[in-house]
Amino acid sequence: MDTDFYRIKRLPPYVIAEVNAMRAAARAAGEDIIDLGMGNPDLPPPPHVIEKLCEVAKKPDAHGYSASKGIPGLRRAQAGYYARRFGVELDPEREVVVTLGSKEGLANLAQAITAPGDVVLAPNPSYPIHTFGFIIAGATIRSVPTTPDERYFESLERAVKFTVPKPSVLVMGYPSNPTAEVVDLAFYERVVAFAKEHELWILSDLAYSEIYFDDCPTPSILQVPGAKDVAVEFTSMSKTYSMAGWRMGFAVGNPTLIAALTRVKSYLDYGAFTPIQAAAVAAINGPQDIVDANRRLYKHRRDVLVESFGRAGWEIPAPRASMFAWAPLPPALAHLGSLEFSKQLLTHAGVAVAPGVGYGEEGEGFVRIAMVENEQRIRQAARNVKRYLASMGVNTPAQTSA
């Protein structure tokens, strides 16, 4: 019996899982581990959202199959959000589909539009589903940078000029996970023009649309006139409303791509539990206090992280958006590589981070730090890191000045 399965052969061991397994084992042994590895919000959803979930769940007729593409009220709510936030008009019937989190939507759209041998342009480093969703579908990945500068467009030009067969899909995600880079509308305008010229579909991941700092709201690619001709965009309620475990997301935009995703989903799922969808409507249409509060909280955590880790001897650039910091390894320990450094940090400092190489080979030399612990725990992590760095012979700023 053949056990060498085609798609499994295309999936390498998940590097980040090594650190996750070590973290779980340490906690099972009673160790206090400060988990800054997984982007799992530590905050609850708004009370009125939980109340709506309970209210609808008490209805006897709420427990059957739901709608794979999402209940009409939720699709209308998401269209309303795009109109308010971005000034983008969407048809809830043809241009919006509800997904079981953005991850499921990206993976199933990859299945819908990809044939074995297709070439897909995807950022490196990036969130793993941006590449592996297409690898599972049989595609070949050609990497492009995440840096939204001239190097990015030069890479796109080379890719379409020298790749056979010609690329058919361009994947992007800003604010970036893991690098936290952001873009402006002018960047999206250039991307849309490039995609139209070279007949590329664009899949834009906007999961961190509402976690931005310094009064610089993140744009949507669909704000570009004519973007819906070539683009779909994925958003998620996971981080915006602290609803990660609820698995609520959306794909919106080009009707052809939305129809393809809707058709594949119709074979695979019956949609999220109806009370969850009803509660999602309450979140989008109700008071938005939590969105502003979460943004302020993550900004405060960012500032605490940068300040306290800097004093500990580890300089971390301040991210402009997202709930992550993309941190270069301390120069004196860069030779360890991101995976070994992450393991040592867990073992000797009790701090879990995600090794950058888990997001692609271009992530080597970095770790991703998730701001999912409170201020006191972040400062405790910094103290632990300081002791670890000292044990490795790395001088802190205070020691250097002395």
Automatic annotation (TrEMBL):
Keyword terms of this UniProt record: Aminotransferase, Transferase
PROSITE patterns assigned: AA_TRANSFER_CLASS_1 (PS00105)
Domain named Aminotransferase class I/classII large: residues: 32-383
Superkingdom: Bacteria
GO terms assigned for molecular function: pyridoxal phosphate binding; transaminase activity
Keyword Translocase included in the entry's annotation: no
Cofactor(s) this protein requires: pyridoxal 5'-phosphate
EC number assigned by the record: 2.6.1.-
PANTHER family: AMINO ACID AMINOTRANSFERASE, GLUTAMATE-PYRUVATE AMINOTRANSFERASE ALAC
Protein family (similarity comment): Belongs to the class-I pyridoxal-phosphate-dependent aminotransferase family.
NCBIfam families tied to this protein: PRK09148.1 (NF006604)
Protein name: Aminotransferase
Lineage: Bacteria, Pseudomonadati, Pseudomonadota, Alphaproteobacteria, Sphingomonadales
